[in-house]
Every structure is written in C-alpha cells, then in structure tokens.
Design brief:
The structure is a single chain. This protein is of the alpha+beta class. It is built from eight helices and four strands, in the order ααααααααββββ. The radius of gyration is 37 Å and the shape is elongated.
Length: 227
C-alpha cells in the first residue's frame, strides 16, 4: 500500500512538471509565429518598395534649369518631353501634350527652376485627367514660330495686311501683341498689329489691325477690327 502511494505521488509530480513545461513553451511558440508573420510582412513591404514609383531624380534632365532648357533647339526640347514620357512608361501619344505643357511652364516660371519639377506638375495634371494637357495647353514653340524673330511681327498677318494695303511697299511694322484664347474651340490667339502705311492721298498714317489666328499654323481666321 505504501509503495502504491509513492508510485501515485510520482505520477502526480511528473504530470505537474510536464504541465509547467507546456505552459512555458506555448508563449515561445506564439512569439515565433508572430515573428514569422512580421518577417513575412517585412518582405512584402520590401517587395512593394522595389516595384513602387521610380525616383523622379533618376530622369536624365531632372536638374536641367529653365534657362538651360530654353537654350536648346526646338527639336531637343521635344526630345526632353519624349524621354520623360518614356521614363514613366506613359503612352507615346501623349509626348506632344507634355511638350505643350512644358513649353507653357518655362515661359512663366523662374529661370532657375529644374525642368524635372515642371514636368512633374504636368504629370500631376495628366494623372488628374489624361485629357487636361491637350485641352489646356498649346505648343508655344510652334505658336511662336509664327512670329518674326527680327521685329516680332506675325508673319501671316503681316502678309495679309500688305496684300490689302493701298501701297504695300510703304508698310512699316510698329508693334505686335497677342493674347491666347484656349478655353474655346478652336483654340486661337487674338493678334493686334500696329503699322504705318501710305494712304490714298500719299500720306503716311498709323493703322491697327486685330485678327483671330490659328495657334498651330498661324493662319488668319478672321479680321476682328481695323482702323
């Protein structure tokens, strides 16, 4: 009987010890699972970072200033927009829209600003609405090619004026100003030219003609006023 009691006590002790061991190991096992989960999440985060948005500073022309950009030829300026579109893997067809946006920005922003910033703003507009660039901007490089680099006259409007003068040979350009109208269809510019010319009585007089012209080709669409 005494031996049975001792054996029973030994069994109870063994069970107690095993229970304590189980209780101590259980949290460790849970901690391991938690650690595994954190590791897995960490890998997912790393993976997301690896395939995330590219660093804009990696764009080759990012640090080019507005002043440096304006010193490039028209074809080289277009290439900057094309390379930006390729860099972000955007549709090739929007290259012209980005060039138009940039051609506007560089004329109204500080000469020290980097081109990468300006193109970034154009990209924000594009991401807001893919049609926004096409609707709100025109290619200023192409538009300004319709003006004389010598005296600032609008080439096709000047030709129209001379063709309708009493004495075309007496034409003297004074000044030309314009304003863009982009919120209507078709997009156009209102160009005003002041000039001198000989009238029917042989005297030189000051005249003003205001016309609506196409922003792309510079074609005179309509004479709005003349005096």
């Amino acid at each position: 009987m005494k031996r049975f009691a001792q054996w029973s006590l030994a069994v109870v002790v063994i069970i107690f010890v095993l229970t304590e061991i189980f209780i101590e190991e259980s949290p460790a096992s849970g901690a391991k699972n938690s650690s595994d989960a954190q590791t897995s999440e960490g890998l997912d985060d790393t993976s997301k970072a690896a395939v995330g948005e590219v660093d804009p500073a990696d764009f080759d022309h990012y640090e080019m200033s507005v002043e440096e950009y304006m010193g490039e030829s028209t074809s080289e300026r277009k290439e900057v927009a094309e390379e930006f579109v390729q860099f972000y893997e955007l549709p090739e067809a929007v290259s012209q829209d980005f060039h138009a946006c940039l051609s506007y920005m560089v004329r109204y922003k500080s000469d020290e600003l980097p081109i990468g910033h300006l193109l970034g703003w154009c990209k924000q507009d594009y991401e807001t609405d893919p049609m926004k660039l096409a609707e709100e901007y025109v290619d200023h490089d192409k538009f300004e090619s319709n003006f004389s680099g010598w005296d600032g006259s609008h080439i096709k409007l000047e030709r129209f004026i001379e063709d309708n003068m009493n004495d075309p040979g007496s034409y003297e350009h004074v000044e030309t100003r314009y304003r863009l109208v982009l919120n209507s269809e078709p997009k156009h510019a209102v160009v005003t030219t002041k000039f001198r010319g000989r009238n029917a009585y042989g005297g030189m007089v000051l005249n003003t003609v205001t016309a609506k012209v196409d922003v792309e080709e510079g074609t005179v669409l309509e004479i709005l006023s003349q005096n």
